[in-house]
Structures are given as structure tokens and as C-alpha cells.
Design goal:
By secondary structure, the protein is an alpha/beta fold. It folds into three domains: 71 residues, 3-Layer(aba) Sandwich (Udp-n-acetylmuramoylalanyl-d-glutamate--2,6- Diaminopimelate Ligase, Chain: A, domain 1), CATH 3.40.1390; 233 residues, UDP-N-acetylmuramoyl-L-alanine:D-glutamate ligase (3-Layer(aba) Sandwich), CATH 3.40.1190.10; 157 residues, Protein-Tyrosine Phosphatase, Chain A (Alpha-Beta Complex), CATH 3.90.190. It is built from 14 helices and 24 strands. Helix 6 links the parallel strand 11 and strand 12. The chain is globular, with a radius of gyration of 24 Å.
Length: 489
């Protein structure tokens, strides 16, 4: 590793790589990483006491006498490299695609994984929702979309051991800036869109875009595995102009216009999905999607570009997309035979909420009702969520969504401040208890209305001041619908 200096016993046997001193086991290499809230260098003694065989530290760190150490310019940068080396560089034994963007990352990740699997290519995926290895899926309960560098490498090693040939990794801007994916040796860098979220972490949109663009740089310089390094870009997004100038061997664009390398012909969209002929650089294939909304047409085109770049035959791409049934909590329909529609979606920003409502509007003959809240970590966007609901729905209910240690009532008031021109009681209500809010929306729904439950999506917990409480949005929706149906009998 460039710039590394070994001190002490360079032959120390390492049984694992661990950046969390609380999880160190005898024989581990403890990597002291500076974090936002704490610096791992403060816990070197704890790691040694727990049995660490060696430590990785930055140049000026103090290390106890007799402890083997690796001094590196940046332990944050080194963590992924050290873990990758420990696990035998698993990414170099896989074809790897990274999916980044503001919206649609999770769906596109699992779409691509599904197409690969459907085409007979053993695949794996890591996303906000789940880790999937050769068709076996386990929930992502980490609270992170893209987990820490050492954990990513451990999952990639599991994939290699299970016979996986291609891996798809949902990749956030935070993960790119924090260098969690530096040792992933990407072959494909794909982008959904670049909105205006996370400007609490990134000072400007340009900085946010630059963070995302690092994925192209990582792919361009990654180890050669015999396939052309490819960027898959959304030509209809404002990010395209800048991203398209990033150096990489091959660049494919997708969009609704014929100027894009991948685009739909004879596009038809219904309330249950879409159908189109997909024009690609490798020919045409017919696509029928069983997931609704125009943004899923974009997701499908992006996933198609990824899979074609990874070597999936064109005809298998169309067949694979046709059998994709959607992702939990992403515009997921709840149908128990009621005479109104109910959807669950993870939309938890102003832009995502507006997008979901805009997509549902053309297929809603009655009213469009939405239940949503704002999380404790997104105070900059609270009035914007209120504005989105006010502009694009007919009636909305402001409720709670992961308040942590903030007062849910105050959060709701912040959201309400964006709903200018709308009258409480007439145009919206505030129902702080989310379970009660869902029941209220279901109670208000009339035939041909659409109810959107936004924000929680696939999540299995509600994060409150006392910790995390179990939560299942679909179970709550189904219970409310059953009560409504029972009362009508």
C-alpha cells in the first residue's frame, strides 16, 4: 500500500479487519479511523486490550509499546484496501457495477440484479433494503445504504465463495466521499439522477455532483477484468453535461429522447406498468414492466445499460425486466380488494414526494391523498415537503417519521409552514401518531381515490428518542384496510 510503514512485528498473523474497537476479536487488525463523532485513535488501547494483533494508524498516532502497527497517510482511505487485501481482493474476481444518484438507486440496483439472475448469471447485490447473494436475501438493518468499507469487502468475499459472477452495489455520495467503496474495482458506474438532497452534508449541488462523479473515476482506474469500463448516464438529467465529460473508456446515455443511446420507442404507460421497444447500442428488445410510473422506465433503462455493459445478452435484458416484480416499499401497491388504491413509497424528501405524487396523478380518478412526515435529520427540507404535498395532492396528513430526539410536533409545524394557502381541516390535517394517521387516510378514502403512504417504505423500525421501535408500513396499511372493509360489511 502506498505510503505504508510497518512498525514492530511485521509477521503478526491477522484474523480479521475491524474499525470498531467494540467489535475487535483476538487476532484482528484494528484500523483507527477518524469519524464525525469520534476518532478511532482514541480507542487504540481498548482494541489492544480486546486482543488486536496489530493496529493501523495515521502517522502521528501514539501506539502502545510492543504492538505491531501499520502507519498510513489516511486510515479512512486504507480501511477498504486493507480489508480487500485480507479477503483476497474479491472485487477483482467479480464484475462489479455501482449505482448512484438521488432517487431510484435501490430499485435500479435490484432491477439489474434480477436481470442478471434471470439471464442465468449468478449475481449479488447490496442496497438500502437488502444484501443478496446468489438469490439468498437478508435485510439491511445497518441504517446505512452503503455500509462500511470492511463490511463491503466481507460481503464481496461471501459472493465470490457462493459462485457469484456479477455484483451490483448501491453507492451513496457519503460512501464515495468517505472512501468506503475505493477497493470495489468497479466495471460500471451508473447514475439515476442528481437532485438537491443532502445539501446539509454537501455545501452545494456542484459539490454533491462532484462527490457522485467519483464513481466514474473509480471505475475508470479500476483493475482490468476484460470488459470495457462503462459509465451509464441519464441524458435527461441536469447532471449529464458535467458527468459526460468525465474520462472513461465507454459512455452510454439513456433517456426519453432519441438522442440517448438507450431510449424507448412506442412507450405506453398504465397504472400498473409500461411497455416499449428499447433501443440500445446493441440493438432493440421489447420491454414490459410490471412496476408503475415513468421513473421506473428510467430505472429500467439504466438497469438495462448496466446489464448490457456487464455482458448480459440483449434478449435476456428484455425478458429479465419483464419478470421484475418491484422492490419492497418502492411504489408498492397494497390491494386487499378495496375500491381505492393504496401505495407505499420510501419518498422522504420534497423532490421524491413530488415525483411520486406526479406519477400517481394521471391514474387517479378521485382524490390523491398522502400521509407523510419529515425526519429529524432533514430540517432543511421540511417546508419543501409541505409545499410538495400542497401542490401535488388533494388532501394530506402530516405525521411522524423517525423523529429521534426532536419533538414530532415541532417537526410537523416546520412541514406545515410550507403548505401556504392550504387550510387545516379543509386541505390537510396533522395527526402525529403515524398509525392513527394511516387509519385516518384509509377512513377518508372514497372509491377511485389514491392513498400514498410516504417516507417509511421498506423500513422495519421507527427511530424515536428512546431508540428504535418496530414498524411495518405495509402491515399497518393492511390492518387499516381490513378494519375499513370489516366496518362496511
Amino acid at each position: 500500500m502506498s505510503g505504508a510503514i510497518v512498525e514492530g512485528d511485521g509477521g503478526a498473523e491477522i484474523s480479521g479487519v475491524q474499525p470498531d474497537s467494540r467489535r475487535v476479536k483476538p487476532g484482528d487488525l484494528f484500523v483507527a479511523v477518524p469519524g464525525i463523532r469520534a476518532d478511532g485513535h482514541a480507542f487504540i488501547a481498548d482494541a489492544v486490550a480486546a486482543g488486536a494483533a496489530a493496529v493501523a494508524v495515521q502517522p502521528d498516532a501514539q501506539v502502545p509499546d510492543g504492538v505491531a502497527a501499520v502507519r498510513v497517510p489516511s486510515t479512512r482511505s486504507a480501511l477498504g484496501e486493507l480489508a480487500a487485501e485480507f479477503y483476497g481482493r474479491p472485487a477483482r474476481r467479480l464484475r462489479v457495477a455501482g449505482i448512484t444518484g438521488t432517487d431510484g438507486k435501490t430499485t435500479t440496483t435490484h432491477m439489474a440484479e434480477h436481470v442478471l439472475q434471470a439471464g442465468g448469471i449468478v449475481a449479488g447485490a447490496m442496497s438500502t433494503i437488502a444484501y443478496s447473494v446468489a438469490g439468498r436475501e437478508s435485510d439491511n438493518t445497518s441504517g446505512q445504504t452503503t455500509i462500511e468499507a470492511d463490511q463491503i469487502q466481507a460481503w464481496l468475499k461471501q459472493m465470490v465463495d457462493a459462485g457469484v459472477r456479477c455484483a451490483v452495489i448501491e453507492t451513496t455520495s457519503h460512501a464515495l466521499v468517505q472512501e468506503r467503496v475505493n477497493a470495489c474495482d468497479f466495471d460500471v458506474a451508473a447514475f439515476t439522477n442528481v437532485g438537491h438532497d443532502h445539501l446539509d452534508y454537501h455545501a452545494t449541488w456542484e459539490e454533491y455532483l462532484e462527490a457522485k462523479a467519483r464513481l466514474i473515476d473509480l471505475a475508470a482506474k479500476a483493475a482490468d477484468k476484460g470488459i470495457e469500463k462503462t459509465a451509464v448516464l441519464n441524458r435527461d438529467d441536469p447532471s449529464y453535461e458535467r458527468l459526460s465529460h468525465r474520462a472513461i473508456s465507454r459512455r452510454w446515455s439513456y433517456g426519453l429522447t432519441t438522442a440517448a443511446d438507450l431510449h424507448p420507442l412506442e412507450l405506453g404507460i398504465t397504472d400498473t406498468g409500461s411497455h416499449f421497444r428499447l433501443k440500445t447500442p446493441l440493438g432493440e428488445t421489447y420491454v414490459t414492466l410490471a412496476v408503475p410510473a415513468r421513473f421506473n422506465v428510467y430505472n429500467a433503462m439504466c438497469a438495462a445499460g448496466v446489464c448490457l455493459a456487464l455482458g448480459v445478452p440483449l434478449e435476456d435484458v428484455g425478458k429479465g425486466l419483464a419478470s421484475f416484480e418491484g422492490v419492497r416499499g418502492r411504489l408498492e401497491r397494497v390491494d386487499l380488494g378495496q375500491d381505492f388504491r393504496v401505495f407505499i413509497d420510501f419518498a422522504h424528501s420534497a423532490g421524491a414526494l413530488a415525483s411520486a405524487l406526479v406519477e400517481l396523478r394521471p391514474f387517479t380518478q378521485g382524490r390523491l391523498i398522502v400521509v407523510f412526515g419529515s425526519t429529524a435529520r432533514s430540517d432543511h427540507d421540511r417546508p419543501g415537503m409541505g409545499r410538495s404535498a400542497a401542490q401535488f395532492s388533494d388532501f394530506f396528513i402530516i405525521t411522524t417519521d423517525d423523529p429521534l430526539d426532536e419533538d414530532p410536533v415541532e417537526i410537523a409545524r416546520d412541514v406545515q409552514s410550507g403548505a401556504e394557502g392550504k387550510a387545516p381541516g379543509l386541505d390537510y390535517e396533522i395527526v402525529i401518531d403515524r398509525r392513527a394517521a394511516i387509519r385516518r387516510a384509509i377512513e377518508l378514502a372514497r372509491p377511485r381515490d389514491t392513498v400514498l403512504l410516504a417516507g417509511k417504505g421498506h423500513e422495519r423500525s421507527m427511530r424515536v428518542a428512546g431508540g428504535s421501535e418496530p414498524w411495518d408500513e405495509r402491515a399497518e396499511a393492511e390492518a387499516a384496510i381490513r378494519e375499513r372493509l370489516a366496518a362496511a360489511r
